[in-house]
Amino acid sequence: MKKILLFVFIALHIGCFSQKQEEPSIHLTISPVIDREKEINKKIITALIEFLATKNQSSQENKYWLKSDFEKYKTPYTDLVNIENSKFGTDFYKPTLMEIIDTKTADCKIVKIAYIGYNPQTKDNTIRCIYNIVANHIHNDILFSHYLDYATRDYTPVTIESIHYFISPLKKLNSAEADQQKLDIVKICKFFNCSPIPVHYYSCTSPQELFRIKGFDYNPLMYVSETGGLAESNNTVFSGNNADCYTHEIVHIYVNKLFPNAPAILNEGIATYLGGSGLYNYDWHKNNLKKFLQKGNTIDFQRYIDNPFERFYIDNETPVPYMIGALICERALKRYDREKLLQLLQNKNNSDIRVLLREIGITPENMNAVLLQEL
Questions:
Q1: pLDDT of 309-329, one tens digit each?
Q2: How many domains does the chain contain in total?
Q3: How far apart are the C-alpha atoms of 45 and 40, rounded to whole Å?
Q4: Residue at which a domain ends, from 126, 146, 166
Q5: Angle at 308 between CA 304 and CA 312, to 5 degrees
Q6: What is the pTM (predicted TM-score) of this model?
Q7: Residue where a domain terminates, one of 232, 258, 284
Q8: Where are the beta strands (DSSP E) in 196-258?
Q9: DSSP of 293-360, one letter per residue?
Q10: Residue-wise pLDDT tens digits, 161-202
């Protein structure tokens, strides 16, 4: 992935999936443009308040959310889990119901929510996001659902072996890239000694389009980079690269499935080793890192072991934390063997990354010297 922003975005939420919290009191500000006397709107507002008050208890079940969404997406509203939190406090951003929008289906409405924080010290308002969900009127109840299906209703589905593409109406499937993706999956399966994993691949033209189909009208991360993507827990890849080959993210699907205990630095490392990052393969990034260091620049490799999602790019292309992970993977492969690397990824005892690194001769004291040898 060329830019770390999308994985930072995922990392902000992933630790909160199963946390159980006390139910907060929710104050929902409601825009005056909404007709609060309309019966369907009353039901939506009541259900929305209840959902927002309970969403942080679990991202895998909620009685105000469509049950089939959990079967399809596993964590369909993960983008909203703990969205209230900021460095200013755990309940800094407050929800505002901006609009309830009709669709062509009478029992289906788009619900637009903003999360806005007010800093009393600076007297500034800050928008965290503007996010859409779908309200479904079913048997006199309101059940919410993920915006993705509605947002991609005009996308073209194309299945090529294990990849189920959803192609943006703003582009066409690139057959050469799809063929390359197919070949890369063969290599991935050979490396991990596994069968192909079915993957849903949403092919977008930009990060802005990617965020929009996920439900965001606004998220500051939409505008930070020109490319990027992410892999989600339900074997889904979102590409904002205007490309139909995204091997780095595909590798994440396999690692997440086969090695759920893999430390993040090794997960990113093997994805970079096998799939490169952004537009370039691992060898290109390795050479770029080498040139950067030859110019007299220094890197404290140890600093990024626990946080591979920190932004540090060389020439706005090479993600240094990912490369540290990739160098670790390369050392395990060259100095030991593939089975040793797979054992580290498996991490069956859920060990700290430093414990695992000692198995391949890396300590905090020698890390820089050892990894520089791989260049």
A1: 988 999 989 999 999 999 999
A2: 3
A3: 9
A4: 146
A5: 75
A6: 0.88
A7: 258
A8: 199-203, 216-218, 229-232, 236-239
A9: HHTT----GGGGSS-TTS--EETTTEEHHHHHHHHHHHHIIIII-HHHHHHHHH-TT---HHHHHHTT
A10: 999 999 999 999 999 999 999 999 999 999 999 999 999 999
